Amino acid sequence: MNRHFTVLVKNSDSTPRKLQSGVPQGGILAPIIFVLYMNDIPQVRNIMVSLYADDTAILSQGKTPDKAIVPLQNYLKNLEAWLVRWKINPNVDKTEAILCNKKNDDWPKVKVYGTPIEWKKEVKYLEVVLDKQLNFRAHTSLIKEKYNKAFRAQYSLVCRNSSLNLNNKVLIYLEYLRPILTFASPIWACTARSNLRSIQVLENKTLRMIANARW
What we know:
Blueprint: E1 4-5, E2 8-9, E3 12-13, E4 17-18, H1 30-38, E5 47-52, E6 55-60, H2 65-85, E7 97-98, E8 111-112, E9 115-116, E10 119-120, E11 122-125, E12 128-131, H3 137-158, H4 166-182, H5 185-188, H6 193-211
Parallel strand pairs: 7-10
Antiparallel strand pairs: 1-4, 2-3, 5-6, 8-9, 11-12
């Protein structure tokens, strides 16, 4: 790939330099090359590696926290060697860890390149908030916050006084509002009934308004 780049400082351009690595952002070959590049990422027993583009989650489980932490740390050491080999530099500052258990004991922290990673009470992966007890209360709160913001933006179109007909109002709801409520629902639908009920209330209020039904 014969690609070059220049640097512009004020009104002056640098001389062209050839790109030695990387692919154009949005290029049609980028996904294929990425898959080939990541194909030999270390895989070991009892460790699950989940990849979505460049977002990576590494999962370890055990009957006790220490039986999950030790294999995870061993895997991270192998992963570090693989990253060095392929000249991949992860952002340690953006790396987060969560230990899902019911107790608040002070367990040893895992390390990435010698940097201890603090155990978080909540982490977000692919827009889903995971809490240490996996009750998804924080995630349902985030859903309601996003939904209310989107609803306010569309209020003039779906309110009772809107001049839009029912079909158009329903279309706005199905295409713009409802996906916020159902996004990744197979993951968090196991949450408590009270959390599900609070989301159902939002949906009921919206549909009553759209249909101009009685309260």
